[in-house]
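Fill in residues.
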């Protein structure tokens, strides 16, 4: 991909510092850097069980020699993969990219749910923009965030996912993975990573970045994606090349608000509108926050948080069932169960006009 070339690095200025602070700030939570550190440390101390009735986890510590870069990951492996009916079959895979300051332990509510439903889930940790940012001298935090914001880290995140996927498919697990059903999902900075892997094209000063799309990825789940560059006027040109099915998830109070930078749910909707996927859907939950989609239990409201998490779990699965099995009815049934949480819902037109037994607030159909 030419990741080491200076031209590629100059041309890849994807995100501003404000964009990268998305995962640690939201006006509904008013989280300071110290609170972000505390919240991440607490989450890190709660290990996902290594084995449950539905799945098991394995921490993988890979090293990419071409970049001298560690690529840790956590694999959620479904118990269904060992069931007799899967003896000669395979399981689908979701590769997940975390937001700024996260780790492979984060977003466990998604990894655990997906694997309980028969999906393998590989959560990749990006060492240049992971939880290590919160540690060290607090006066150096801004500098560390600025380093994480540089174009080289945006490219390295894409390379991390590609490398991790290579390693997994070459491992003993690879024979059990259905390579025609590989999806990518990510939150915030991770959502931007997923969009690059899905076909987003970035240019600067007339230079188009080398193609970063990974053709192995057949569907994208994009959660709380800020606009590339932090400049909404460039969004359409960057995202139009994405052609795989995409699901976009946000909340009406999904706001990044720091000195010199403001980005709210309108930007997430603009990302959805600009994405070129012929089949795409958008869900905007009522209320919430930018951090409600992380493992933090109180973000966006103590009562609302678990409801949105449960709805996001089932929504993502319904979307994948539509993509890989053609089961439009799962999305319609999802609307019947969770429509009361939704401010806006835009479905692919091919789902059909019947969204379920009950009317869904804000339901519209995308062309």
């Amino acid at each position: 991909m030419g990741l080491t070339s200076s031209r590629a690095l100059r041309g890849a200025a994807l995100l501003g510092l404000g964009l990268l602070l998305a995962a640690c700030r939201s006006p509904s939570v008013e989280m300071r850097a110290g609170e972000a550190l505390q919240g991440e440390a607490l989450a890190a101390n709660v290990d996902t069980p290594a084995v449950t009735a539905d799945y098991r986890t394995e921490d993988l510590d890979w090293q990419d020699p071409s970049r001298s870069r560690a690529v840790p990951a956590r694999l959620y492996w479904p118990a269904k993969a060992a069931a007799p009916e899967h003896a000669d079959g395979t399981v689908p895979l979701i590769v997940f990219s975390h937001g700024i300051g996260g780790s492979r332990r984060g977003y466990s509510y998604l990894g655990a749910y997906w694997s309980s439903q028969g999906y393998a889930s590989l959560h990749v940790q990006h060492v240049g923009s992971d939880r290590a940012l919160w540690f060290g001298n607090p006066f150096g935090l801004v500098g560390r965030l600025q380093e994480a914001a540089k174009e080289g880290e945006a490219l390295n995140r894409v390379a991390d996912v590609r490398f991790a996927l290579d390693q997994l498919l070459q491992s003993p697990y690879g024979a059990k993975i259905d390579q025609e059903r590989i999806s990518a999902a990510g939150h915030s900075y991770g959502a931007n990573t997923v969009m690059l892997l899905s076909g987003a094209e970035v240019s600067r000063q007339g230079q188009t970045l080398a193609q970063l799309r990974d053709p192995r990825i057949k569907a994208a789940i994009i959660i709380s994606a800020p606009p590339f560059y932090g400049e909404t006027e460039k969004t359409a040109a960057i995202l139009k090349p994405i052609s795989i099915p995409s699901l976009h998830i946000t909340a009406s109070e999904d706001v990044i608000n720091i000195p010199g930078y403001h980005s709210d749910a309108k930007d997430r909707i603009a990302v959805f509108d600009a994405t070129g996927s012929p089949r795409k859907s958008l869900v905007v939950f009522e209320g919430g926050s930018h951090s409600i989609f992380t493992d933090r239990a109180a973000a966006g409201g103590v009562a609302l948080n678990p409801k949105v998490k449960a709805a996001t779990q089932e929504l993502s699965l319904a979307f994948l069932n539509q993509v890989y099995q053609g089961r439009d009815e799962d999305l319609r049934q999802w609307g019947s169960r969770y429509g009361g949480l939704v401010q806006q819902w835009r479905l692919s037109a091919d789902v059909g006009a019947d969204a379920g037994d009950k009317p869904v607030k804000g339901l519209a159909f995308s062309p």
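The chain has eleven helices and 14 strands.
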